Amino acid sequence: MGRAFVYLCIISEEAVAPYERPALSKGYLLPEGAARLPGFHTCVGANDELLTTKWYKEQGIELVLGTKVISADVRRKTLLTATGETISYKTLIIATGARALKLQEFGIQGSDASNICYLRNIDDADKLVNAMKSCPGGNAVVIGGGYIGMECAAALVTNKIRVTMVFPEKHCMGRLFTEKIAEYYEKCYTSRGVTFVKGTVLTSFERDTTGKVTAVILKDGRHLPADMVVVGIGIRANTSLFEGQLVTSMENGGIKVNGQLQTSDSSVYAVGDVAAFPIKLFDGDIRRLEHVDSARRTARHAVASILKPSKTRDIDYLPFFYSRVFTLSWQFYGDNVGEVVHFGDFTSSSPRFGAYWVNKGRIAGAFLEGGSRDEYEAISVAVRRKAKVTNMAELEKQGLAFAIQESQTEAPDSGLAVVGKPTYAWHATAGVVAAVSIAAIGYWYGRKRRRL
């Protein structure tokens, strides 16, 4: 029997091959030895091959870069590009990711100023880098206290720019951190020169005759001097191409998929930031997760589902988030619901502390700062197994030792579907599509082109 030929193409609005997006808020913004293309591409397998355009060509994968898909017809299985080209597919993977929310969407006047920056793609990163270079020793105002706000603030002070962070919540990383955890990181940032302005929002800008922002005006009346502004106020899933054609999740704004990452149309799959999928650990609750680990794993699972649907179980994903700033590094697994138990040393300059979230007598989530590889693995195991907690005071006393002990005990088969090392080069690449190419769509089979 002959081997079936499978054709893979990746369409991306960006002009460069898919890249590691997390590097943009970390290595790309460093003042020295900054990451640049092609040095931070996603790696493949054990060989750590850089996925340059040459690599894709060698694997027989076609990259259609700098090309925007402006409409999709799921019933006819066609895509229309901005250049007027119609492309047919047999199987489609939607990996359109998400877009950064803009101040214009909230009616903020003057938010199109040239020194207002966002961070979602390489063009954004280049603009941010140029803005930093244009105001050495100057003032930056960061709008937002989440992931992007915290990582950009760290990069700005590392570049010797004075930073003021503004957000409406009581503390930074309000969606994840407890007040105690946030207090540690805020003190660390403050010691490096970052000023926090909490419980308020911006209302407008002062601008000079060229239109550049010179100050940020807050709702509480304060005027903050600004040579540049960085905005990190959240993202929205890129679902517009498929609205009215595929079922979406009203709760979290993504394209709804089943445990095989399959949408309401059997020939279409969705992965990464745009996908709202069931989490077995949360009793099948539908979640849309905004993190690179989710993008990689959902992409791998979708490809396994396409190649071997009868042998691929429903995805059993453990939600995971991480961040690295300055000399700090933390990881979180699970869900931050239930009663919180903190543990460890919150006073050291080389900290190792964390927290468990206990819901209905079991570990629902776990956070750890400054852990080793084995310690991070241990807390992930405790969450994965929903480790039973009989005494909250004892859990606080044991701290990290509780998770380590749990990870060293034998557990029954969890039924986790494990996708092994990719057999085909393009199998691995599908993970790249979802993880790093926000405007990319992967599709298989029967490519047809015609000009309208």
TrEMBL record:
The lineage of its organism: Eukaryota, Viridiplantae, Streptophyta, Embryophyta, Tracheophyta. The keyword Zinc does not apply. This is monodehydroascorbate reductase (NADH). The keyword Membrane applies. Its cofactor is FAD. It is an enzyme of class 1 (oxidoreductase). Residues 9-298 form the FAD/NAD(P)-binding domain. The chain crosses the membrane at residues 424-446. Belongs to the FAD-dependent oxidoreductase family. Keywords: FAD, Flavoprotein, Membrane, NAD, Oxidoreductase, Redox-active center, Transmembrane, Transmembrane helix.
